[in-house]
Specification:
This protein is α+β, with helices and mostly antiparallel strands. The protein is 27% helix and 28% strand. The chain has one domain: 7,8-Dihydro-6-hydroxymethylpterin-pyrophosphokinase HPPK (Alpha-Beta Plaits, 2-Layer Sandwich).
C-alpha cells in the first residue's frame, strides 16, 4: 500500500527528529520509504505562540494496514520523546500524521484518512506537492497542486533544507 506521511517537529533537535523518523519508518517490517520532500520551516498552525516547526512529507510503501501503521508511527513518536496531552497544538519533538493510504477513506475517532485538515495546511501541501504534484486527493478529485492554489492558509512555509 502506498502511504503519504507528514512529519513535524518544533521542540529540541528538530532536524534530527525528522531524520530519526524517516530512518525508523524505513526500518519497519515490510515498509520502505520511497520519496522524501525537502524540509520546510513553518509557522505554527493553530497556536501561534509555539516555536516554528520543521515539516516534511514522505511517501512509503508498506504491507501494514492503516491501523497497524498508525500504531507503529505512535510508537516511533514515543521513542523520540513525544508526550501526548489533551490540548491541541502543543510543542512536540515529533509528530507523524497519516495523510493518505492509497485511495482509502477511514472515518473513525482514532483515524481519519485522508487527513481531515490536509487540504487546509500549506505546511503539508507544499512538501506533498514537491514529491507528487499530480496526486489526486480522494474526495476532492483535484490534484495537490490545484488544491494548493485554492488553499486559504497564509502561514509562512519556507524551504529549510
Amino acid at each position: 500500500m502506498k502511504v503519504f506521511l507528514s512529519l513535524g517537529s518544533n521542540s529540541g533537535k528538530r532536524e534530527k527528529w525528522l531524520q530519526c523518523a524517516v530512518e525508523s519508518i524505513d526500518k519497519l517490517r515490510n515498509t520502505k520509504v520511497l520519496r522524501a520532500s525537502s524540509i520546510y520551516e513553518t509557522e505554527p498552525w493553530g497556536n501561534k505562540n509555539l516555536d516554528f516547526f520543521l515539516n516534511q512529507v514522505i511517501m512509503i510503501n508498506t504491507e501494514f494496514d492503516c491501523f497497524e501503521l498508525l500504531k507503529q508511527c505512535q510508537e516511533i513518536e514515543k521513542r523520540y520523546g513525544r508526550v501526548k496531552v489533551n490540548e491541541k497544538w502543543q510543542a512536540r519533538t515529533l509528530d507523524i500524521d497519516i495523510l493518505l493510504c492509497d485511495n482509502q477513506k477511514i472515518l473513525i475517532k482514532e483515524l481519519q484518512v485522508p487527513h481531515p485538515l490536509l487540504t487546509e495546511r500549506m505546511f503539508v501541501l507544499k512538501p506533498l506537492s514537491e514529491i507528487n504534484p499530480d496526486l489526486i486527493i480522494p474526495g476532492k478529485n483535484k490534484k495537490v497542486i490545484e488544491i494548493m492554489k485554492e488553499c486559504n492558509d497564509t502561514s509562512k512555509v519556507h524551504l529549510y533544507k
